[in-house]
Every structure is written in structure tokens, then in C-alpha cells.
Amino acid sequence: MKAVILTGRHEAHLGEFTEPPMDANAVRVAVAYCGICGTDLHKFEGKSGSRPLRLPVPLGHEISGVVEEVGANVTRFRPGDRVTVDPNWSCGGCRMCKDGLTHMCENSRGVVKGMADFICPPQENVYPIPDSLSLRDAALTEPLSCCLRGMDLLDVRLGQSVVIVGMGAIGAIMVQLCKRACAAEIIVIEPVEEKREKAFALGATRFINPMKDDPVAAIAAMGIGNVDRVMECVGLPATITTALDVAGKCATVVLFGLCDPEKTVPFNQYAAFTKELTIRTSFINPHTTARAIALLASGVIDTDAVISAEIAPEAVVDELRSRTLSRQGKVLVKWKEFE
Ligand SMILES: [Zn+2]
Ligand SMILES: [Zn+2]
Question: Which ligand is in closest contact with the Cα of 92?
Fold first, then answer.
């Protein structure tokens, strides 16, 4: 089958790859769309995503598609079903799974190598999508499910003030979720000036360009009282520092952006101590896939504001190199036309 195969650092190509094996519990899905994730860009740089990298491997894990074939033991799906897939498989039997912490499964596996003609995930990872949800929008299920995990950990309360650091595809989702969570102030910190208008359209109440203004001073000058919640959506040392600096008293800071495994970030512990910060990290998407599908199907997420482009499989490697479209938002690879 055709796939975008990663073979090494800065080495990927569109070529032939062996189809994943079918078994009695597997669902063979023809991929319609596959999103390019920050983790794909990280892997292209030779760094790990949510799991250590094993090469060669097709990139991609954010898919929607149509069922082509089902294994003998599969009862819930039939050929022709429109689906999305949770790429993270957990065993259900280990200590962490038994505690409900499936994202910490000791035997976890990635079951979607999605920039390919076909994937064959186990049926428990496959989710049907309603007719009202397009295959294009359904490709946002996995990133949205990760955002829901982050939002659960951020725990925004009605009327709180939230800072979102970075407005890429993830930031554009987070702003919308914070708006829906009834945050009174949503302050976006983002160096790309062109994103200002989009931030306000999605629900931001303030926009700070850190290249022009110091975020801490700018927020102090706004007179909003206290920054209660901070969502870091970039993962760079500088933006993590900003997130901790702008956090107010008793604030919760969620470090969501994927960071470089080789880097550490020093921070002022005394400042964190006197503010009594809660610093949390958010890892993948435990138990949030069904809610992500429901939210997308309900139409409350402005997906056009998240998706920056649809590209052909032939254009993926150039995009991985240049990141031109990924800088604007979520890039979807249109793998096969269904609707
Ligand atoms: Zn992803
Ligand atoms: Zn497990």
C-alpha cells in the first residue's frame, strides 16, 4: 500500500509499505483524512512523540475513514461504516489500566500509522461517527480528545481568567473550549500578529504579542485581577517560562505542548512557591474520544478556524520540511475521496 514513510531524521518519502496484518479482532479502515500532528513534525526531526520512535514507520495518527473489512470476531462494525480511531491502545489488564489510568498502560501500543491507504486497528479503538459529522472534521477527533484531557486537568471554573500560550491548531481549539467553559477573560499570547483577528473571532478577550510586549507587564496593565488558569500549547522552554511567569495566585498551569526530550527548563521556584502554583502535564487522551466525537458532531467547534489546509499525500514531505501550512493551523492530508 501507499504510505508516507519515515526512515530517519529529515528522511521521509511517499512509497510502498507492507499493509498491517488483519486478525479476528481487527477492523480494516481505508483512510480518508489524516492530520499532521506536532508529534509528526517532532518525529521528522528525529525526536520521540508520545512513544519512542521505531523506524521505518508510516507517519500520522489523526484519522478518519471508512471500514473496508472486519475480522471474524468483530460484531460492532460493517464494511461501509464511517469511523475515526483512537490511536492509543491499552491492554485493560495491567495495574495502571485496572486503576482506570489507561494512558499509562504498561503494554500500550500505537495502533494507527495513518498516512497510509489502510490501517487495521483492534475494534475497541474504532469509533463510529454520526452522519452529521463529515470525515474531514472527524479527522480532528484525536487532537480534540487530547485537548479535552488538557481541559479536564486545567479545570476552568465559570468566570475565571485564562491565558492560552500559543495559537496554533491546538491553541485555536483551546480558546474555543475555554469560551464554552465560560472563562471571563481569555488572553492569548502569540507572536504571529496575523492570528490576532482569529483569536478574537474564536472568543479571546485579549491578545498579547510577546515580540512587542512583555506578557507579565501587559497582563498587569490590563487590570484583570488574577490569572487563574494557564494552558501552555507550544512546548518550547521560552513559552513554558512565560506560562509559569504569567500564572497568578493559586493558578493551575497545564503544560500541554509537546517538548523536546533533550531539554530542561529552569524556573523560579520561589515565585511558584509564593503563588502556590499547581503545575500539571497532560498526556494523550484517556477516555475522551467519545466526548470529542460528540463535540465535533454538535457543531460547536469552529473546525475551519482550526484546519489551515488540505494537502495531497504527494505534498506531505515538502510540508514536513517547510512547515509553511502547519504554522497556520492543522494540516489535513486528504488520502482518499469518499464524500
Ligand atoms: Zn496528534
Ligand atoms: Zn494496561
Answer: 2
